[in-house]
From TrEMBL, chain A:
Residues 125-154, 166-224 are annotated as: Disordered. GO terms for biological process: mRNA cis splicing, via spliceosome. This is Nuclear cap-binding protein subunit 2. It comes from Fibroporia radiculosa. The lineage of its organism: Eukaryota, Fungi, Dikarya, Basidiomycota, Agaricomycotina. One of its GO terms (molecular function) is RNA cap binding. Keywords: mRNA processing, mRNA splicing, Nucleus, RNA-binding. CDD domains: RRM_NCBP2. Residues 134-144, 214-224 have a biased composition (Basic and acidic residues). Its main location: nucleus. It holds the Pfam family RRM_1. Belongs to the RRM NCBP2 family. It is found in: Nucleus. Residues 34-118 form the RRM domain.
TrEMBL record, chain B:
One of its GO terms (cellular component) is nucleus. This is MIF4G domain-containing protein. It comes from the Eukaryota. The lineage of its organism: Eukaryota, Fungi, Dikarya, Basidiomycota, Agaricomycotina. GO terms for biological process: mRNA export from nucleus; nuclear-transcribed mRNA catabolic process, nonsense-mediated decay. Residues 1-12 have a biased composition (Basic residues). Residues 1-23 are annotated as: Disordered. One of its GO terms (molecular function) is mRNA binding. InterPro entries: ARM-type_fold, CBP80, MIF4G-like_typ-1, MIF4G-like_typ-2. Residues 328-516, 535-842 form the MIF4G-like type domain. It comes from Fibroporia radiculosa. Residues 13-23 have a biased composition (Basic and acidic residues).
Length: 224, 879
């Protein structure tokens, strides 16, 4: 039944970028695999929620079931970073998930499922520079379910904040601590510097981000 | 999205592979192109495209007739809604080519159409040989339309249909086989009926009578599979549902009465617009429907029963959710035609639910104009009297009808759930209301006896659906039902639906979706607190707190299992010295150890698995013996203690109880039979209810988990034996082959090698495992039957309510039922469900099981005993 439409359980172009196997070998393994990679999870989604939705594709009477769930963790913080592996006892259960679960919502996010070559030690950790998943490294959008801004954006934000904090560390009190702002136009030759610094576009961005930060905190409280 | 550096490169490499795959697809051979053109018929307007496509085929057909007939084959069997148009296309191919040469014009050769048809027949024969029923039936649609198009001889078509009704007269044809054959004949007759009427020796009533005779003979099993359970009914009471084959028959009778004038009103017949074909008719060769082949592996249990599972198909009752002016009545000609087409679509496109949803919403394109209301925004049309149905309601009704088939749906329920989700995503404003109305209708049926397992599926669908759409349900409208008895099906449903929603989401999220009065713990809908663990020994004032802490500390410190066992043994002495009153020391110890283990594993499913795996020796020690330090034979009490500890620890999360039980069986700490026993002895609602004789949905989940585990193990063991045998056969064949190659000179040596080698140790082990596991399977089933006998009809423990709730009067008085009546009714329903769900397994062991359990029932004069035995007999195929 694949003439008219493409079945949803055909292998996609997902792959483990660090697998050191040739393509054909990988395909052979995928054709037998009972492990799924699950992506786009919320950092807050629990294994029990995952178990609940993925148990709908099990065939226990055929000797199947959920063998284990491996939660993807941030390498540094050891907190969930938005992916996991679900391992079944049979291949057909994994395929059923590609047809019925992939592309539907869990914890109000559309999750994706892909056949995986199988769990190996170390794969439970994020591979991004910051410990999480690579996709969260460069993400430009704000995603409350995945820690807000992408890791790089977060890092920039932290750096900027530090800059802001350090910028005025040299502020002092007393006369002359605050600039006067300059008076009326005077004939050239005065001691005042004529070049006024233009407002940095960054300033505006910071304001927007702090608003987003507040939203993130709101969200966290909602989950507590 | 803005990717940086290295990542971008990597990403692109992936993209290249993808493009390569694509490119390969893009270079198509001319045959593939032609095939594709045929498959794609009707992308815009099938009727207008016909002449152009026919011309294209004429131009290319010299390439290969098989390519053309393959296009037809795929088109017909994978896009059945196009069948009438394929018939019209084949009709055009019976004309002489547009640039007719001398030869063709003088009729010197068979038409292209006829050549295609001849080739097509081979494909049909192949489907028939494989007994690919759906394909067979769809090919029959094609032939029926071809008969109407005057391409196929009516006589031969009639004979073809009769070879399918012949199946109905076979001795001991399974219901599944008979039903599928009957549908082939019925649907073919619906489409070709008008032609048969014009002929002399083709009498439609021959076929109709054959089907009627068959459906009359299957009354018994119908009682067990109706969506609305009526325990008091001797014969099936048709309420809010219709049976597939019965509907076909009812529709056929209307067709017949009207002299098949409704065929033109039920199916598009585009070929009738074309000039009549006057050439010779194609005679369909006569066929014989081959018998079902069951590959016997000869594996039997230790007592010689056949352990192979033959899934029996049951009559198919589709639940009705809408009035006949909203959705078509499937017992009428056009109503049957529409439902049957939608069912085929849902079945064929199971591989891609997104495409399936799209095609379902495009379905009106393939029906006669006026069948469905125009889409919002489409030009208005004059409503056709008796038609003008709502597409979305019709589609949702058929999908839910498929979900709610008993004992189970053809595909996993989650497929249908996901399909409905896709439909809602494609057209939220039109599909959403249909879904809402369906939920309300099904909810209202809960008070009228909607089957318990359907109630469970409804709650499951409800939760999954809401999880995909922001948990937006107007709970307020069900508020009045909060005052119903706590065991009323509506309240059970609401509780379950909320429980399932929480599992998919989290407590506070779901709490927010409920109106104030439903949030109130007194409403008993929402649990008082979020699901979580309850470690009985946390509180320092509780007994055994110190003992538990000492165990917990060892486990937390990852002490070796032997050390923990040693510590438990010493604890035993301390406890027995200090215990006051009548304390079962072993039980206390098991509870302390098990709960402590669950405690360290309570953070997540993975933590639990790790904890269990680390302390397997301790668990085995706990369940196998009460003698300190000794490992003896497993004792059931010890296992119940373990299961009770789990149930106590996770009393606020019954989901976890089922999960933990599953893994305890997986690691063979307990056996499925232990879990079955536990479900009956201790499984009733948590608080000191031992001795209770009612069975609820939670107990069903526990029971199902255990039985599926037992059955699944037998399945694995069987596969292993089969694989090993095959391997041995292959090895033997290879050895023989190499022998004959090398030992041709040594005749005696060759002789010696022909003696079959002894079973390999692996095979011996596998066979032994198979025997053990089938014994366990039988024990688990037997224990279940025993449990239900004990609850409902045991002679030594009569249950007076069991016979009260099954009378017609009692049922009509259900508005006044209290907890005990509803509980008992539910218990009956779960017993029914057990019987039909596990019927294929029960049949294998029917005698042993009946002997062991049915001997314990009360007197036959008791109506409860009568119902119990009747249910059992139907399920095991004895009635």
């Amino acid at each position: 039944m694949a003439h008219v439409v493409t079945p949803l359980d055909q292998p996609s172009n997902y792959k483990d970028s660090q697998a050191r196997l040739d393509r054909q070998k990988q395909n052979e393994m995928l054709a037998r695999s009972s492990t799924l990679y699950i992506g786009n999870l919320s950092f807050y989604t629990t294994e029990e929620q995952i178990y609940e939705i993925f148990s709908k594709c099990t065939s226990p009477e055929e000797g199947g079931g959920i063998k284990r769930i491996i939660m993807g963790l941030d390498r540094n913080t050891r907190t969930p970073c938005g992916f996991c592996f679900v391992e079944y006892y049979t291949h057909s259960e994994a395929l059923a998930c590609l047809r019925y679960i992939s592309g539907t919502k869990l914890d109000e996010r559309i999750i994706r499922c892909d056949l995986d070559l199988g769990y190996r030690e170390g794969r439970q950790f994020g591979r991004g520079k910051s410990g999480g998943q690579v996709r969260d490294e460069h993400r430009q959008d704000y995603d409350p379910g995945r820690g807000g801004w992408g890791a790089q954006a977060q890092r920039l934000e932290i750096e900027r904040r530090r800059e802001v904090e350090e910028r005025y560390a040299d502020a002092h009190e007393g006369p002359g601590a605050v600039a006067g702002g300059g008076g009326d136009w005077k004939e050239a030759g005065s001691a005042d510097n004529p070049l006024k610094r233009a407002r940095s576009p960054d300033d505006e961005g910071d304001a927007a981000r702090s608003g987003a930060r507040a939203r993130l905190e709101d969200h966290d409280q909602a989950r507590m | 999205m803005n990717y940086h550096g290295g990542h971008r490169r990597k990403h692109y490499r992936g993209g290249d592979d993808y493009d390569n795959d694509r490119r390969k697809e893009m270079y198509e051979t001319p045959e593939q192109k032609l095939r594709k053109s045929i498959i794609n018929l009707g992308e815009v307007d099938p009727v207008q495209e016909l002449p152009r496509l026919a011309k294209e085929i004429y131009e290319q057909a010299s390439l290969s007739i098989p390519a053309v007939s393959e296009g037809f084959r795929i088109g017909v069997t994978e896009q059945p809604f196009k069948v009438p148009f394929y018939a019209a296309l084949l009709r055009l191919l019976h004309d002489p080519p547009p640039d007719a040469s001398e030869e063709a014009a003088t009729g010197g050769s068979t038409t292209l159409g006829k050549q295609v048809l001849e080739d097509y027949w081979k494909a049909f024969q192949a489907f028939l040989d494989k007994l690919a029923w759906r394909e067979i039936r769809l090919c029959i649609h094609f032939f029926a339309h071809l008969t109407m198009a005057r391409l196929v001889s009516p006589q031969s078509m009639f004979e073809l249909l009769k070879s399918f009704t012949a199946v109905l007269e076979e001795f001991s044809a399974s219901h599944g086989r008979a039903m599928k054959a009957a549908l082939c004949a019925a649907e073919g007759l619906m489409m070709a009926g008008p032609i048969f009427k014009q002929e002399n020796d083709t009498d439609a009533s021959e076929i109709i009578n054959a089907i009627a005779a068959y459906t009359d003979s299957v009354v018994g099993s119908k009682v067990l599979v109706q969506p609305i359970a009526r325990l008091d009914a001797e014969a099936p009471v048709i309420e809010h549902a219709d049976e597939l084959l019965d509907s076909a028959l009812a529709a056929l009778r209307i067709f017949k009465t009207d002299d098949f004038s409704q065929t033109a009103d039920s199916f598009p017949q585009p070929y009738l617009e074309l000039p009549e074909y006057t050439g010779s008719l194609f005679d369909l060769p006569s066929v014989l429907v081959p018998p079902e082949v069951i590959e016997l592996d000869g594996l039997t249990t230790d007592s010689g029963e056949d352990a192979q599972i033959k899934k029996e198909e049951w009559p198919q009752y589709y639940v009705q959710l809408f009035d006949n002016d909203i959705t078509p009545d499937p017992t009428t000609p056009v109503g049957y035609a529409i439902r049957s087409s939608i069912l085929d679509l849902i079945d064929i496109f199971e591989v891609n639910r997104k495409e399936c949803a799209r095609l379902l919403l495009e379905f009106p394109k393939w029906t006669l104009p006026g069948t469905f209301k125009p889409r919002p925004g489409a030009p208005p049309q004059e409503p056709l009297a008796g038609k003008d149905w709502q597409l979305e309601s019709t589609v949702i009704e058929v999908i839910l009808g498929s979900v709610f088939l008993i004992p189970e749906s053809a595909h996993k329920p989650v497929y249908y759930f996901a399909l409905i989700t896709e439909l809602c995503k494609l057209s939220p404003t039109t599909v959403g209301p249909a879904v809402g109305k369906s939920i309300r209708k099904l909810y209202s049926l809960l008070a009228d006896g909607l089957d318990v397992d359907l109630s469970r599926r409804l709650a499951e669908w409800f939760a999954v659906h809401m999880s995909n759409f922001g948990f937006q349900w107007v709970w307020k409208e069900w508020l009045p039902d909060v005052s119903l008895s706590i065991r009323h099906p509506k309240r059970i449903f609401m509780r379950r639906a909320i429980e399932f929603e929480i599992r998919l989401s989290y407590y506070d999220r779901i709490l927010k979706t409920l109106p104030e009065p439903m949030q109130d713990p007194n409403a008993s809908l929402m649990p008082e607190e979020a699901p979580g663990p309850d470690y009985d020994y946390d509180d320092p004032t509780r007994p055994y707190h110190d003992a538990a802490q000492s165990v917990l500390n060892l486990l937390r410190g990852r002490a070796k299992a032997e050390d923990v066992i040693g510590h438990l043994d010493s604890l035993k002495n301390t406890i027995s010295e200090t215990a006051e009153g009548d304390v079962h020391v072993d039980t206390v110890l098991r509870s302390v150890a098990m709960q402590s283990l669950l405690h360290i594993g309570s953070r997540s499913f993975s933590h639990f698995l790790n904890a269990i795996e680390r302390y397997l020796p301790m668990l085995r020690h706990l369940t196998s013996s009460s003698i300190p330090g000794g490992v003896g034979i497993a004792i059931p009490e010890a296992r119940y203690d373990i299961l009770n500890a789990v149930s106590a620890f996770w009393k606020r999360s019954r989901h976890m109880v089922v999960i933990v039980f599953d893994k305890l069986m997986q690691y063979q700490i307990v056996d499925p039979t232990d879990v079955v026993s536990w479900a009956f002895i201790y499984g009733g609602s948590s608080d000191a209810s031992i001795g209770k004789v009612s069975f609820d949905a939670f107990q069903w989940d526990v029971l199902k988990g255990a039985l599926d585990k037992a059955n699944g193990r037998v399945m694995i063991a069987r596969r292993k034996v089969t694989a090993l045998r095959k391997e041995e056969d292959d090895n033997a064949a290879r050895a023989k082959a190499s022998d004959s190659a090398t030992m041709e000179v040594d005749a005696e040596g060759k002789q010696a090698n022909v003696i079959p080698a002894a079973e390999s140790p692996a095979l011996t082990t596998a066979l032994k495992a198979f025997t053990t596991l089938t014994r366990e399977q039988k024990a688990a089933l037997s224990r279940t039957l025993d449990g239900f006998v004990g609850y409902l009809v045991a002679e030594d423990k009569p249950n007076p309510h069991a016979r009260k709730v099954i009378t017609e009067n009692a049922w009509h008085n259900r508005a006044n039922w209290d907890e005990i009546e509803w509980e008992t009714w539910e218990t009956w329903c779960w017993f029914r469900h057990f019987s039909r769900m596990y019927s294929p397994y029960l049949r294998n062991y029917v005698n042993t099981l009946a002997e062991a359990s049915l001997s314990k029932v009360g007197p036959a004069s008791d109506p409860a005993v009568g119902l119990f035995k009747k249910t059992w007999n139907i399920a095991t195929g004895q009635e």
